[in-house]
Structures are given as C-alpha cells and as structure tokens.
Amino acid sequence: MACPYGYDTSKTEESLGADLILTRAYSRAGLYPAAAIFFTIVQSSNRSSFHPPIVCYPAMGYAIEGEGIEIITVANTSWIEPPLMGTWEQRGINRSSISVKKLVVTKGSDAEGEVKERRVVLYFYVKDNPLMSDKVTMVRVSAVIPVHGPIGSSEKILNDCKELTADMIPYMFEFPEKEEDIIAVTLAKSGIGGWCVLAVLLGLPILVILYPRVKKRE
To answer: Which helix (H) or strand (E) covers residue 177, if one does?
Structure first.
C-alpha cells in the first residue's frame, strides 16, 4: 500500500476521552475502483471511548448484511513477547495467526431501496500487559466494495484489507529492543524458582500485617 493520507482526529479524541485516535487512508495502483482502505486505531483506558463497529455502523445508517471471522497471517512475528511459561509451540498456539471480526454493511437508497454502498470492516481489540497498563487498543480496517463491480471484486477488497492489516501489525505492537522487564515479569519468566520467589515477595507484606495480630492473641 502507498500514499497514506492522515486525518486530524484531535477533536474526536477529546470528545471520546481517548488517549489516541489515528486514522489513515491507503491506496495503491490497481485497487478497484481506485478506492482507499481506511485504517483506524483507537487507544484508551476508558471503555466509553470505544464505539464498536457493530454498534457504530448501524448508528450511521448502515445495515449489517453479514458477520464472520477472518484469519490474518502475519509473516513477521519477531515482535511478539514469549509466554510466561513454556513456548508458543508447547502451548499449541500459532502465533503467526490472528483472528479478527468481520462485518459487511450496506446503505440503501431512500427512493428504491437498492443498495448504493457496501463496505467490509475488519476489527479486533488488543489489551496491554495487565501488570503494566490498563489500556485497550481497537484496530479497524474498512473499504468500500463496488456494488456493480466485476466478479471477485469483493474478495479482492477483503484480501487487500487483510494484507494491509498483516503488514501493519508488527509496526503497531513492536517492543523496543532494550526495553527492560519489570521484576515481577522477569521472575515469572525464569521458571518455577522465579514463581516461588514471587510468591514469597507477595506474601511478605501480608505476614507483616498479620504478625502483630497473631502475637497479640498469644
């Protein structure tokens, strides 16, 4: 994809109370019919900042024509943090595949009721590490499907949306190479011994609080 066009979302951020809203339109030669793919990120610690597409589009006058799940395959997975226990393979998780929700929405003509616009929407949510942040990120990718386009045009638009999403994911959630883990995460990653040390560290404050009461009873 090329030629990204950005939008000023400062007023929307303020009205929704979001930490970040980023919207860009991408296009490339050969994209039928020279339409754009819209890429939006909303990040916030406040749940009321999010307008789920399944609610947002009907509020804008669209009808939900179909719902489903799509699998996004990400080629570059070097950015993904390892699990706290074991490996991804041991846990039976394919880290290169991400499941996203899909909507197909339409908007009809007031006079004849004929569909005048059809759009495909892909979206998913990502939570930050709960030990470090309570932020949630919603990613939404959408594009117009030609109502009278050639056979296969809707599938091509869907694949273009999936391709853009796959290309963007490593850049959205890439971790700095020199980022240091907090002590709790480091201990948890070190195995059973680390979990034991973590349990002792978490239990000490409780013992300090309870000891005077136990001593008084004796």
So the answer is: none
Q: Is 141 exposed, middle or buried (0-12, 13-18, 19+ CB in 10 A)?
A: buried
Helical H runs in 4-113? 10-16, 53-59
Q: What does the pLDDT profile of the chain (218 residues) look like in tens digits?
A: 555 677 888 888 888 888 888 899 888 665 554 568 999 999 998 888 888 899 999 999 999 999 999 999 887 666 555 555 555 555 555 567 888 999 999 988 666 778 888 999 999 998 876 666 778 899 999 999 888 777 778 898 999 999 999 888 877 765 544 444 455 555 555 566 666 665 666 666 666 566 565 555 55
